[in-house]
User: Fold this.
Amino acid sequence: MVTFINNAPFIIVFIAVFMARATVEEVDSTLPLTNTNIVSAAQTKFGALQGVTLREMFSEAVDKATIHAGIPKKDIQAAFIGSFIPEMLVHQGHTAPLLLDFAGLKGLPATRHEDACASGATALRAAIMAIESGFYDTVLVAGVEKMTSVSTNKATEALAAAADDQFESSIGLTFPGVFGIAAVAHMQKYGTTEEDMALVSVKAHKNAATNPLAQFQKEITLEKAMTPRYVAWPLKLFDCSPISDGAAALVLTSNEKAKQYTDLPVKIIGTGQASASMNLCDRSDLTSFSASVDASRQAYKMAGLEPKDMDFAVVHDCFTIAEIIASEDIGFFKPGEGAKAVRDGITALDGDKPINPMGGLKAVGHPVGATGVKQAVVVYRELIGDAGPNQVANNDTAIMHNFGGTGATCVVNIMRRADI
Ligand code: COA
Assistant:
């Protein structure tokens, strides 16, 4: 008995940890999404939007997703907003009420989500839960970031806040540096080459050339992508997403409300989110991001689907190596085979498994807090057949993957046209 009492705190902790794990697994495996629809989606142009403020970009995206889409603003019940570091980039905190007021939505409950480059997707996931639970019928999800108001050095320093300050950023590790390390690991383990990564960039710029909302609407040759202007070896200028301004917005509704707004809603049928250690030193493998693998597994399980059922993917290609790794982590290709898929044209717009059909972060731009929402905008537009020259043929189901930092936070959603 004495032994039991002495050990009781440990036994209680053990049971609590076991129950917590059991709860996570239970939610992971048994909760179907049945009531969440995207009924409209829009983005501003991405790029260096000189003279356009944070609130103006936000307001433009919201107007496009609401009144321009025939959805009265008075129908919106709450707002979920992704934004990473406006404090450091435009010296503005407490942005949710400010942005809503400027967008003509004053008074609504609004919360800003900050999860580095995954801020947009974690805002979307919170909105999914709010609709799915029946708490709200119609909500706004929006993401925004204004990055070009500061120098590249200042933006690099601000972005580094998404890494572990004690062990990484304070000793000079930046995001190009972090992904350079991941690239070296992939090269050593699988033989991936600088040219393979450059081919991801060539594809991104080709797709973005026909996307009028992209920061870079210009095709590049492989030779240009290989220009040895190293940012963090082996990553060169064209391996990096740029520093960008932009905003994106979605309206999510329940099934009942969706019918009021559109004949062709897009359903979110699976969602997953996971985290991993911030610090690269605590990772056993730098050629895969465990949070991406875990979040994908959850989303596929919830949707009852597999990678083979996905017609295309929109993944977080903040650097070209990140797209190659993501294509493996979401299960499109076996570990180490992502680069070969790029070389073989499988991930091209007209390939068997198109990835980033409208250009990705690399060429469309990466205003960090807006990116996760913009990815959902791309999936929505592709699924309803509104992608113009960037249309993926014969598609009805797709996966989106958005991560923050070096993949320490990852959100994956699976979406399907409602008429399927
Ligand atoms: N891809 C292609 N072209 C780019 C580019 C990019 N990522 N970034 C800038 N350019 C172009 C500019 O348009 C400009 O072209 P121009 O001379 O024809 O007008 C030229 O390169 C120089 O632009 P500049 O803004 O001076 O470049 P920079 O050296 O200040 O910044 C990077 C380049 C790559 C360092 C910067 O874009 C960067 O830091 N990217 C990574 C951002 C990041 O880490 N995001 C978070 C990811 S987790």
About this structure: Residues 117, 152, 156, 159, 175-176, 216, 231, 237-238, 240-243, 318, 366 surround coenzyme A (CB under 6 Å). The radius of gyration is 21 Å.
